[in-house]
Design brief:
single chain; alpha/beta; Lambda Exonuclease, Chain A; 2 domains; 4-stranded mixed beta sheet; 3-stranded mixed beta sheet; 39% helix; 14% strand; globular
């Protein structure tokens, strides 16, 4: 079996700190998540479940990119490149090579879920995802951009339309950005944790095989 490559989106689940020394470098929660990743690998199934919010994100991505470009005076286009470094793999949303800055674009489901303040944007899972992209793209910083655009009507369901039809609101009020700057110390800690996660992943795969041996009839 080839060494596992961890997606940038999974790093945060592996970076939770152990509560006791007996846990080792990986927390109980991280080890549980590694077993989940192993199950996906063994059975060839992605556990990610779709939702209306995720469907909106996919459908309105062009509108959100356009909003970001207009409000911030940029001319970014959707990134189509996937990068790997032997440990990490990822395909970022947008990358501005002239500024060595990437963008992770998130289209909010409704006004109720749109973060109006930076303190409401900050999230450890997203921070570590950005740090993974920073490493892969050798960037100086990564920006998480929350865009609020109209929700396609077929997705709204029974929720009030004013929560979802937002194009009448000034554009600058519908974009909140949070910046993650490169940190050599955190990046080193991330690599150390991912290497330990890779070793544990191989162990749990071997353990699964030992628990589920192939039955052989007696001759």
């Amino acid at each position: 079996m080839k060494d596992v490559l961890f997606r940038c989106s999974s790093i945060g689940r592996l970076m939770t700190d152990p509560k006791t020394k007996s846990e080792g470098i990986l927390s109980v929660g991280a080890k549980t998540y590694i077993r989940e990743l192993a199950m996906q690998e063994i059975f060839g199934v992605d556990f990610e479940v779709s939702s209306k919010a995720m469907e909106k994100g996919i459908e309105v991505e062009p509108e959100s990119i356009a909003l970001l470009n207009r409000v911030r005076g940029l001319s970014l286009t959707k990134n189509e490149e996937r990068r790997s470094d032997g440990l990490l793999t990822g395909s970022c949303d947008l990358y501005d090579s002239s500024r060595k800055r990437g963008h992770d674009l998130k289209s909010s489901w409704s006004i109720a879920t749109f973060p109006g303040w930076i303190v409401d944007c900050q999230d450890k899972i997203y921070e570590w995802q950005c740090r993974g992209y920073i490493k892969l793209w050798d960037a100086d910083e990564w920006q998480v951009d929350y865009a609020l655009v109209d929700t396609p009507e077929h997705l709204i369901g029974y929720e009030p339309l004013p929560m979802h039809i937002v194009s009448h609101i000034p554009e600058h009020m519908r974009l909140t950005s949070w910046v993650v700057k490169r940190d050599a110390g955190k990046e080193e800690r991330m690599v150390e944790r991912l290497q330990a996660a890779r070793e544990h992943f191989a162990q749990v795969i071997q353990e699964f095989d030992s628990i589920h041996p192939i039955f052989k009839e007696a001759a």
